[in-house]
Automatic annotation (TrEMBL), chains A, B:
InterPro entries documented for this protein: Glutathione-S-Trfase_C-like, Glutathione-S-Trfase_C_sf, Glutathione_S-Trfase, Glutathione_S-Trfase_N, GST_C, Thioredoxin-like_sf
Positions of the GST C-terminal domain: 85-195
Taxon lineage: Bacteria, Pseudomonadati, Pseudomonadota, Gammaproteobacteria, Pseudomonadales
Domain called GST N-terminal: residue spans: 1-80
Single GO MF annotation: glutathione transferase activity
Entry keyword Ubl conjugation: no
Pfam families: GST_C (PF00043), GST_N_3 (PF13417)
Subunit comment: Homodimer.
Protein name from the UniProt record: Glutathione S-transferase
Species per Swiss-Prot/TrEMBL record: Halopseudomonas xinjiangensis
Example GO BP: glutathione metabolic process
Gene3D superfamilies: 1.20.1050.10, Glutaredoxin (3.40.30.10)
Record flagged with keyword Transferase: yes
Keywords: Transferase
Amino acid sequence: MKLYDVEASGNCYKVRLLASLANIELQLEPVDLANNEHRKPPMADMNPLAQVPVLVDGSSVLRDSQAILVYLAGTYGGLAWWPSHAQGQAEITQWLSFTANEIQHSLCAARLVQKFAAPLDKAAALAKSPAVLLLLDEHLRNNDWLAMARPTIAECAVYPYVALAPEGDVDISPYQHVAGWMKRLETLPGSLPKP
Amino acid sequence: MKLYDVEASGNCYKVRLLASLANIELQLEPVDLANNEHRKPPMADMNPLAQVPVLVDGSSVLRDSQAILVYLAGTYGGLAWWPSHAQGQAEITQWLSFTANEIQHSLCAARLVQKFAAPLDKAAALAKSPAVLLLLDEHLRNNDWLAMARPTIAECAVYPYVALAPEGDVDISPYQHVAGWMKRLETLPGSLPKP
């Protein structure tokens, strides 16, 4: 099973984090973004969004880090990280959407500008970041984990760009419940340090 | 089972569309956005993002239209709209992320500005829209449906803001495979006209 991967990508880190936590073996295939490998075949055929990560498992080809988390956890992770019942799946999906939209356009976008000179509006991204972190902090005030009272793929989806946020000049230090949650995740067996 | 709903909201329409297609009974509870009902308790407690829709089913409270689709289809829709196996769930999740991110910040954002005077960048939203529609069109050139070769909640998640895109001055007429897919969806039993 092959993961087309970029070490510094938070979206790729989401998948590597789950694989490490759930003991799923992945063959990493580095993608050369600087030479636009993601915009050329075969990468561009596998993902017309021209993004990493892409997972290839036999005849199955998947783009989108959230979709890959669902696939890996549901296929190889037992029921620990992605449950079989719709109530739990929906609880988790709330956070998959939150990372695809709110986190992507705040914490992640600020880092993309700062670290990779992406042509995005860093001021707008920074302006959205406190509300995102505050919502997380309020949720984690009363919950040890994002969904289902236990670590799930919601953690793998949300943690990476929170942990990497300081690289985009976002100050996460005021959010003590977020800090506690990060510490809990970082001390789970198999947790993987951020890139 | 109660859906906190705004008639003109494409995100609420996603849920109403699934309910209609899958014959799931919902009690609609209109939310008065003009009077900021979504920013005050009890709505703000149910969804700290201060958005509709919100679904309440017994003790279960869910925000986020994608999460609500997963819950309703998985709990009340049999296996027709949301399968039990991770491969199908992941195929669909690719499109749930696509609507939460790419469609939200293009087709949806342009309409929010045009129709509701939302403080967003309409020019930026319009600039992103052709790539979103082209990706859909290319996918639908070789596929009748978005995932699993049959209608699923991917359709409920993606169709609404495509169908409503002309309200944001986005021209969808060049995309003939998208048009064919829309027609197929609109002629399914129980399909619900756009608001």
